[in-house]
């Protein structure tokens, strides 16, 4: 009988996650944006930097914690998502307070932008691209990336919930593993007693 001792399942390298890759881009663009467009004395600078960093760091911490706790992984992944919501609101506020346009879903520029950010060309060239964009364009680009990452995190959370419902937490998995181990490895097959006719 096969032992169920492989209950500690690693998630792989977090750097391969699309959500992590996009969170790195969001963090980079946020740093560029606050340094160029936000007064360095404003508390908004720190708030936006911390929100962007919190998203990336919680994706990493949540992913790593998944080895021993799906509950913690779900919680930290949700924290990452919440940090993005906070950051999105800051970009929206900047547009609003500076009389700039928040592009709606039927805006032709937004449609083209959504298509472009999914290409490998964007991942390679975004550091150069943002230097050519104005504040309105950078805000709408950031909001687009935030929504994309939120969608990816939502999918991860749903998968984690489903796995938790199927497999339970670490204690339940450890209990099953111990029972499986005992049944499969510690109980030797019973042998018939020697016959009374044997010499």
List the helices and strands and how they pair.
Elements: H1 18-37, H2 43-65, H3 70-97, H4 108-116, H5 120-129, H6 135-167, H7 170-186
Task: Describe the model.
This protein is mostly helical and 199 residues long. The protein has helices at residues 18-37, 43-65, 70-97, 108-116, 120-129, 135-167, 170-186. The two termini are 36 Å apart. Mean pLDDT is 84; it is low at 1-5.
- Given the structure, what is the number of helices? 7
- Work out the number of β strands: 0
What does the average pLDDT come to? 84
| Rg over CA atoms | 25 Å
The secondary-structure element order is HHHHHHH
Give the quaternary arrangement of the chains. Answer: single chain
Termini gap = 36 Å
Which structural category fits the helices and strands?
mainly alpha
Instruction: Give a short account of the largest sheet.
Output: none
* Strand percentage: under 5%
Shape: elongated
Uncertain regions spanning at least 5 consecutive residues: 1-5
Helix content: over 70%
Task: Please outline what is shown here.
The protein has 199 residues and is mainly α.
Keywords:
199 residues, mainly alpha, 7 helices, elongated, disordered N terminus
């Amino acid at each position: 009988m096969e032992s169920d001792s492989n209950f500690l399942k690693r998630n792989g390298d977090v750097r391969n996650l699309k959500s992590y890759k996009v969170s790195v881009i969001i963090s980079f663009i946020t740093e560029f944006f606050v340094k160029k467009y936000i007064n360095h004395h404003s508390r908004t600078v720190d708030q936006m930097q911390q929100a962007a960093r919190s998203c990336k760091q919680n994706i990493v911490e949540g992913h790593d914690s998944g080895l021993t706790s799906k509950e913690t992984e779900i919680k930290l992944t949700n924290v990452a998502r919440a940090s993005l919501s906070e950051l999105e609101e800051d970009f929206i506020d900047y547009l609003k307070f500076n009389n700039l346009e928040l592009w709606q879903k039927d805006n032709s520029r937004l449609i083209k932008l959504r298509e472009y950010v999914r290409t490998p060309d964007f991942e390679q060239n975004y550091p150069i691209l943002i230097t050519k964009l104005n504040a309105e364009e950078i805000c709408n680009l950031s909001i687009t990336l935030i929504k994309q990452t939120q969608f990816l995190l939502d999918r991860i959370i749903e998968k984690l919930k489903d796995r938790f419902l199927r497999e339970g937490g670490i204690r339940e998995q450890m209990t099953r593993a111990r029972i499986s181990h005992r049944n499969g490895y510690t109980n030797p097959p019973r042998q018939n007693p020697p016959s009374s006719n044997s010499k």
